[in-house]
Amino acid sequence: MARKKKSDTHEDDEPGLDISSLIDVCFLLLIYFLVTTTIQPREQDLSLQLPAAAPSDTPPVLAPMFIKVDKSGSIYINAGPSQEPLDSDVNQRTLPLLEERLDSYAAAARAGGTQPVVQIWADPEALQQRVVDVLNCLASAEVKSVTFTDLVDRP
Length: 155
Prior knowledge:
Nucleotidyltransferase, domain 5; 13% strand
């Protein structure tokens, strides 16, 4: 039997696809989208006015609004016997009742010529996302004087 010489098959003659330049293009597009993407303004840092080391001699003209976030994610305003429950659905990221109260409080403060002041107390076991939702409401109401407090009557 005679040996046949192996010749190049048709598979070797098929053109190949060089993807090295495609990888470069993909990385350039990724860098482009990372650079041009903007952060949503409501998720940016809210400028907080931190409390001073020494108490002030002059009391504020308008009483600050007190917001409480408990461990179940429910949101309350005021403290003590005048405490009112507002938004308690943890799955809902928007807080319509709190936004309504903040808008009226901020309007009253600005009508009196003062800045609205808000104090927030968050339970240590509360979801951080719930506190961020409260901060987003404050940003939408343009409340810039915000402080976190631990002065609340615990049951």
